[in-house]
C-alpha cells in the first residue's frame, strides 16, 4: 500500500495530528541510514504506533484501523508495540472505561526516540 493510500485510510480512526506525524515519521525513516531496520523493526506499523503514541492515541483504535484496512493483524501490531516498549521508546498507560476491560493509551518517550533513532519528535 502506498503512503497516500495509508494516510487516506487513517481518517476516521486516528486524529489529524497523528496522521500528520505519521507522514513526518515516514519521511524521516525513509532516509537510507534506516534501510536495515525497515524489514524487521521500523515498518509502517511501527511508524503508525510512534505517531499514535506521540498523540496519546488508544492502542485499540490503531489496531482497529490496521485490521479494517488490511495493513496488519492485531498480532503484528502487538509485536511491534512490544518491540518499541522494550526499547523504551513507547510506554503504555491504562485507561479505565465505563464498562469492559481497560484500554491502553500509547505514550511516546521523545528523548529515547531521539537517542535510539536520531529523530526529533
From TrEMBL:
Residues 5-115 form the Transcriptional regulator TbsP-like C-terminal domain. It holds the Pfam family HTH_TbsP_C. InterPro entries: TbsP_C. This is Transcriptional regulator TbsP-like C-terminal domain-containing protein.
